[in-house]
Amino acid sequence: MSENKFLTETEESEIVAAIRLAEKETSGEIRVHIEKTTSMDTFERAKEVFSLLKMDETALKNGVLIYLAVDDKAFVVCGDKGIDDIVGDDFWDTTKEVMAGHFKNGDFKQGLIEGIARAGKELQRYFPCEDDDQDELSNEISRGE
Ligand code: CA
Ligand code: CA
């Protein structure tokens, strides 16, 4: 399956809308990156994409990347160090469980939307949205090779 046909335009705009909604509750910035495959370790590749997308440049270091390698059937939720500094290693476990449940059934759109919503809720406790919040990172889905 090509990552271009992976989501329809409608599904993609639903995902972007889910990011916009989640970011109304938290100053954390959520992005989704989808690519076909990677020859790298998935987590290492996610960290590389994180910096390629300049996600480490948010003021509070609270960007979160949901990285998905379609053909590898692998995904990673990767937060910046502002998050890692104050939460435990298991912080993303519920988010990942929600996503994995849908992915297993082949429902990638729903998995991403619910994962984004869950990540937003988890972040809200530590990084509530302030009145002067800015959209520091694009809500659009980014795509790799
Ligand atoms: Ca923001
Ligand atoms: Ca954003």
Rg, nearest Å: 14 Å
Mean pLDDT over all positions: 95
> Biggest sheet, strands in spatial order?
3-2-1-4
Bound compounds, each kind once, are: calcium ion
- Distance, first to last CA: 13 Å
Say what oligomer this is. Answer: single chain
Q: Would you identify the regions where 5 or more consecutive residues have pLDDT less than 50?
A: none
Could you give the count of β-strands? 4
Strand fraction equals 15-25%
Instruction: Give the helix level as a range of percent.
Output: 40-55%
Bulk shape: globular
What summary fits the major beta sheet? 4 strands, mixed
How many helices does DSSP assign? 5
What class do helices, strands and sheet pairing give? Answer: alpha/beta
Provide key terms for this protein.
145 residues; 4-stranded mixed β-sheet; globular; binds calcium ion
Topology:
Blueprint: H1 9-22, E1 29-35, H2 42-52, E2 63-69, E3 74-79, H3 81-84, H4 93-104, H5 108-126, E4 142-143
Parallel strand pairs: 1-2, 1-4
Antiparallel strand pairs: 2-3
Helix pairs in contact: 1-5, 4-5
The structure holds calcium ion (CA) (2 copies).
Short description:
The protein has 145 residues and is α/β, with parallel strands linked by helices. It has helices at 9-22, 42-52, 81-84, 93-104, 108-126; strands spanning 29-35, 63-69, 74-79, 142-143.
